Structures are given as structure tokens and as C-alpha cells.
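Case study.
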Amino acid sequence: MKLSEHKIVEKKAEILTAAQVCFVEKGFHNTTINDICRESGMSAGNIYRYFDSKEMIIEAFAMEELQWMTTAIKDLPSSPDMLQAIVDTAFWTAATLMREGRPELNAELFAEAGRNPRISAIYSKFNRQLITEICLALEEIENNGLLVLRHERQSIAMLIISLVDGLVLNQIINTDLDIMTMRPVIETMVTSLFAKPAEDR
Amino acid sequence: MKLSEHKIVEKKAEILTAAQVCFVEKGFHNTTINDICRESGMSAGNIYRYFDSKEMIIEAFAMEELQWMTTAIKDLPSSPDMLQAIVDTAFWTAATLMREGRPELNAELFAEAGRNPRISAIYSKFNRQLITEICLALEEIENNGLLVLRHERQSIAMLIISLVDGLVLNQIINTDLDIMTMRPVIETMVTSLFAKPAEDR
DNA sequence: TCATTATGAATGATCATTCATTCATGATAT
DNA sequence: ATATCATGAATGAATGATCATTCATAATGA
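After joint prediction, the assembly is written out as follows.
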């Protein structure tokens, strides 16, 4: 009996979940197909029915992981206090990315992007989306006139993204880096990028 | 004729330089000993006279790369304008780490630290040194009384480090990220962590 | 029964590591 | 000065392990 499209997606997801567990502890390249077999309870041959190669598993995984990040931003609420919304989202994103082996996966993705053009392309695409999204939010801030941006929208967006990425990755080597206690500092730094219309620069 | 201690160090350095070239383009795990042979013009057997294993080459390389970072900070000048010195050093460090395949190597190091306890230990050690060094500079700022820290010393140090790391790594996936145009934003963010004594918080 | 899914041993490639051998150079003896 | 030796440096083919991938076969179920 042929599997429905839906069931196929489910199977793939199952494999990717197993792969993720392996990737966290061994990284992309030290994870073997057999590791993924063990973790998913599937045979090697069967995994190859759903993915053409190990490479494709890594790619699909990267897509999924990065997709997560952009959807997280997508519902950046269009609240009256847009600045607070940005700070909250940045903080929440960092906090979420710091749980459950996520920092390790992020490091793996950066490293892979550095040498694998396909992963790099995927990452770039999502990153551009992310920047665009943040810029839109910044535009909204400018338009409502309560605050002035002290720098270019693009630059501000990149800096916020970098700050979050940096915090997440540093968690790997500094396990007692507690994001909660960082909140006030993050708030100060992000807020400093804006000024009241009167004072300007 | 036995090689002098000095010559041995030189040989090792030669191998590490070749390894670095390979690591940039293929990462630690896709680099083979033969790649390093080709790049260094040495035979496999000979390389094993200087390093016990590929693992040890990676470790030695990590040491060297991280050492660089701490020495860069070590001569954080004890200038009258300590705040400016910190901003300058952060900026200069980021700018330097963004050249010549360094972002790729940094990503590789983070990824490796996430799964290899020996690399993680090395990285943690250097990171602690870095934080200590920055905290000392912050203490000096507090002592001379011209500025007040708006947050804990440790937190400020970690945030600055994270910001720099994040910028460096984002360079990998955003090749038109130009650190020069980021300078004013970095300056704003770092400066925001301090206040004049009068206003305080 | 037959179409499809699943298995897992077999295949072939790649690699880290080893080791028998060669090479280079300085010391020693004539 | 020349020939011989000794020592450690360097080579690169061979070894053995590990893996991604394939495929002949079995299970499943409509």
C-alpha cells in the first residue's frame, strides 16, 4: 500500500528528529547513518528511501532549524510599544535557542555554512528574510514618530541578530552564562539604538 | 642529526600553518592527513613524528588560535579614556577576526567545542581569561570615577564578547556585512553600558 | 497475489595510522 | 681529504577500520 504524501512527510520528520539528536552530540560529520538508524529504529536501506543521501538529511535539517527562527520573528507583534516588542522578541529568541542542544546545532550550522555552499545559500536566504522582517518593524517605529533610529535600519537589524547569535554560541563554552541575568543588559544595549525625537543624535 | 627543540617547534608550526589552510576550506573533519601532506609538502609518516594524531593537530591549532585572542586583549591600553579603549579594542578584534577565513575557523571551533570536551576545556579556559581581563578594565573605569557601570562587570564583559563573536560569525553567511559601517552602532551599544555618575540608573 | 515498504548484509571507497625502507648529514677513522 | 659509519629524519605503500550506499530478500497488507 503506497504511503500517502502526508505519511511520507511524517516519516521524514521522524528521521530528522532522530538525526537532530545525533547531530547535537556528534555533529554532522561524526554522525553515521547507523547512528540515525539506531536512534530512529529504522534500517539504513529504509532511510535511503526517504532521503537520497546523508547530505540531503543535513540540508533538510538545516532548512527546518532555520525556518523555525524566521517564523519565530514573523509574529513580531505590532504592539503600540514596538521597541519593547523588539527587545522581548530578541530576548525570547535567545532564550529559546539556548535550550536543549540548540547552541550546538547553531554552531554546527555556522561551521557547515562556512564550507558547504548549499548550506550557506540556505542560511543566507533565511538571514535576509530575518533582516527584512526586523527592518519592517524598525520602519514602523520610525513612522509612529515616538522614537528616532540612531543608525541605519540594516545596521541595527544586523547588530541585534549578531548579539543574539553571539549569546547563543557563547553558551556552549560558558555553561553558566545565564540568559535571564543578561536581560537588563540586552535591554540597555538594544534601547540605546533609539533616541527621543527631540535629542536625536 | 637530532633536531633542536627550536627546530621542532618550527616544524610543528609549519604543519599547523598548512592545517589551517585546509581547515578553512574543509573544516576539521573533512580535512584528511593527506590534505595536510599536500599543503605542507611533508609525508604522512613525517607528520606523525610531530603530532601523535589528527586529534592533536586540531587541539594544537585551537590553542594557537585562541591564544591569539587573549594576547590581543592583554595589551588593552590603560589609557585615560578607558571606555574608548574598550570600544576600540572590541572593534579592532572583530575587524581582525573577520579577515582571511578566520570566521570559518571560529565557527569550526565553536562547533568542535560543542562535542569535544578537550576543545571545550581549552576554549573555556581562554574565555575565562578574556572575561577577567575585560573585568579588570571595567574596574579601572569604575575606580577613576568618571563613569558608572550600569550593570554587573561580568555581564557587561560577556555581552561585549558575544557581540564580537556574533558579528564575526555572521560574516560567514552575510558576506556583505561590512564591519567598518558597523562601527558607530557598536560604539553606541557599548557606550550605553555606562552612565555619568550624576544620572546613574 | 502483487505492489510497496522495510531489512541488513555486502560492497567499495575513504582515511587515519603504521612501518619497512631510504635519505641526509655529521662524526670518526684512515 | 676521503671513505665509512651511525643516527635520526623523511617517505609512501600497506593495513585495518569505518562508513555511505546498494541490493537481494523478506515482511506487510489490501
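Observations recorded in class. Chain A has nine helices and two strands. The domain at 1-51 of chain A is CATH 1.10.10.60 (Arc Repressor Mutant, subunit A). We will return to this complex in the next lecture.
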